[in-house]
UniProtKB/TrEMBL annotation:
A Pfam family of this chain: CT_A_B
InterPro entries on file: CT_A_B, Cyclophilin-like_dom_sf, PxpC
Keyword Hydrolase (UniProt): yes
Annotated source species: Agromyces ramosus
Name recorded for this polypeptide: Biotin-dependent carboxylase-like uncharacterized protein
Carboxyltransferase domain: residues covered: 25-286
Lineage: Bacteria, Bacillati, Actinomycetota, Actinomycetes, Micrococcales
Record-annotated membrane-spanning stretches: none
Keywords recorded for this protein, A-Z: ATP-binding, Hydrolase, Nucleotide-binding
GO molecular function ontology, one term from the record: ATP binding
Amino acid sequence: MTRLHVEQPGAAALVEDLGRPGLAHLGVATSGALDRGALALANRLVGNPDGAAGLELVLGGFRARFEGEAWFAVTGAWGPVSLDGHPVPPYASARARDGAVLEIGTAVRGIRYVLAVRGGIAATAVLGSRSRDTLAGLGPEPVVAGQDLAIGAEPAASVPVVDQDVAFPPPAGAVTLALLAGPRADWFTDAAGAALFESPWRLSEQADRIGARLVGPVLERRRTGELASEATVPGSMQVAGDGQPTILLADRPVTGGYPVIAIVAPGSLDAVAQLRPGQEVRFRHA
């Protein structure tokens, strides 16, 4: 069986697939890759099903040795990738020989790489998924140096020929996200609703797989009373008492106690996954 021997995991390396949908009634979040499009693309590049488990790597600094031959692809964030010291094109499949060393350097665009290996990461599934849920502690433990990751059996599909022109790095400047109306938008003043769409925001350093906190104008409430816990969905933008919003992500709690002013549209969530601290964010109506 082919294995990937991890010599250096970087800032954070997690096994992720497309998550555990449909279990919120049990208190279990969806979890899964934050940049779902990047995972699906990386898998397609090596002939895997879209939902095969890969590695989500924050910022880079990753090094691993292939024990056995394997096809692999790196998508998501944009930065230097090499195999035995030779550059590997972004968003393209490549073949690793037995003993080859893969290095993924610090990302220069975006923040989360996705590494897919043909056959997928053969971690133990929990509640139907191989994803790590960082809030609940479900799924495979974070990858550590010295760990051997088993690779699954070859899929039936062949490795496709894909033109490299499909590669588009995450934007370095302002990112515009589409917003849907939130269930508690009426708890906020008209001025708050206008500020949400008219003002620039920036991603704070308080951002992880649970949520991404934004910094900008104070979103004032029209109603100031307590709110009973309510269900949340990925992209829910809840506003804490200080008037600053947080976008809840894949590992979010399934209920929250702050009013949700808006919801990031599903088509914009992958872009949130690649935001870097300090990057400008603007909103538009979905």
